[in-house]
Design a protein that fits this description.
This protein is an alpha+beta fold and about 140 residues long. The protein has two helices and six strands.
């Protein structure tokens, strides 16, 4: 199958990850998906959630390979697109290694964010054009 006409999409959502392959007519020709669970770190607050970075990477690689196999595509594709949870983050150390991979469901700083928004919301908004809460600037 001509690989140059295919686009691979990796979507990391709240309930799982999926990989889709689209042809040049925007039809899904390959797919692979899995649900996932979040880590509850032993010393973290109850609202905290995290990912295992190595397991996350292995899942992404496996799903991409699976969707390409399902589509019958080998070699290179025309493009790769990645979508993910809003406000999900991965922090790296000085050597580029993951120290924390957090989903949008990690609410450990919800109260701190609210306090920052209350005390410095206008300053944060002027600097970033975003607010922690959905309130418009004063």
């Amino acid at each position: 199958m001509a690989n140059r006409d295919h686009v691979l999409v990796l979507d990391a959502g709240s309930s799982g990850m999926r990989s889709l392959v689209f042809d040049d007519h925007a039809r899904i020709v390959g797919r692979s998906s899995t649900e996932w669970s979040y880590l509850k770190e032993p010393d973290a607050p109850e609202l905290a959630r995290a990912f295992d970075p190595q397991a996350l990477w292995e899942t992404a690689c496996s799903l991409m390979a699976g969707s390409l196999l399902d589509a019958g595509v080998t070699g290179h594709v025309a493009a790769v697109s990645v979508t993910s949870q809003r406000q999900g983050v991965v922090f790296l150390d000085g050597d580029g290694r993951e120290v924390y991979a957090g989903p949008n469901l990690d609410l450990r700083a919800i109260f701190e964010g609210g306090a920052i928004d209350h005390e410095m919301g206008d300053h944060v908004y002027r600097a970033t054009c975003h607010r922690f809460c959905s309130h418009p600037p004063n």
